[in-house]
Write a structure and sequence with these properties.
By secondary structure, the protein is an alpha+beta fold. The protein is built from 3 helices and 11 strands; from the N terminus they run H-E-E-E-E-E-E-E-E-E-H-E-E-H. It has one domain. Helices cover about 25% and strands about 25% of the residues. The chain is elongated, with a radius of gyration of 36 Å. The N and C termini lie far apart (about 130 Å). About 25% of the residues are buried.
């Protein structure tokens, strides 16, 4: 069988073919490493940016959910504020004849028509307290005391901490900013802000509405994602009740 020999270029020997398993040259290896490093940097930067974006969104959603949930729950209870004598029930000889019995920047106590008792209103306290389970944060707590029946259809309210006094506690919101600024602000029937660390009896009788400000930060101790603040003005029914009784 006839075979052909590789032709020899004129004036020189035939060029040697490069072996297929000779590998990469140093220059090719450096170029490949450079491209691979560039790809890693781009992918890593994109991943970090995506993680931060997702984390920020989750934090904002958590903050908004806590503040809005607390505000919604609180407003429902505050709107039940009522004068004790307005209810067609028993009398309370030791109760002040006002809807709101205590009004400070971080706590409000009032008679509430929750329908839990047939003899009178409940005594509800809304307050912002430091959360013992999560340092650096606060909780919005609701404490409810039902009336204790007395003689001749009368009723009283027990003192929290005393023997046999049943206080129902409910957490309306968690992860609030602590130490907290003013949560409650009180306005009279003319829309004028009432000032003072604790309102007097005369001021409490004139409370028409309450401004509530709740600020939530589910990840305390960092400033990358700001807290969320929810604000609402809540109208109280005791103003109309007081006006009707006075007339």
């Amino acid at each position: 069988m006839r075979t052909t020999e590789p032709t020899v270029a004129e004036g020189g020997a035939a060029p040697a073919e490069r072996p297929r398993d000779a590998g990469m040259s140093l220059a090719e290896l450096m170029v490949a490493l450079g491209i691979f490093t560039l790809i890693l940097v781009v992918v890593g930067s994109t991943a970090v940016a995506a993680i931060r974006t997702v984390g920020g969104m989750e934090n904002r959603v958590d903050n908004a959910a806590q503040a809005e949930l607390g505000l919604s729950s609180m407003s429902k209870v505050l709107r039940t504020a009522v004068l004790p004598q307005q209810l067609d029930a028993g009398s309370c000889p030791t109760c002040a004849d006002v809807a709101v019995t205590l009004a400070t920047a971080t706590q409000v106590t009032f008679h509430a028509n929750l329908g839990r008792s047939s003899i009178g209103p409940s005594l509800v306290t809304l307050s912002v307290l430091q959360d013992p389970a999560k340092p650096g944060t606060a909780i919005l707590e609701q404490r409810t005391i039902d009336p204790t029946p007395g003689a001749s259809g009368s009723y009283t309210f027990c003192t929290p901490g005393s023997g046999g006094c049943r206080v129902e506690r409910r957490v309306l919101a968690r992860s609030l900013v602590w130490p907290t600024a003013a949560v409650f602000s009180y306005y009279d029937t003319d829309g004028v802000l009432m000032t003072g660390s604790s309102l007097s009896a005369v001021q409490k009788a004139k409370i028409s509405s309450v401004d509530v400000v709740l600020t939530a930060q589910t990840r305390p101790g960092q400033d990358r994602w700001p807290p969320f603040t929810a604000v609402q003005r809540i109208r109280l029914p005791n103003v109309e009740i007081s006006s009707t009784i006075t007339e």
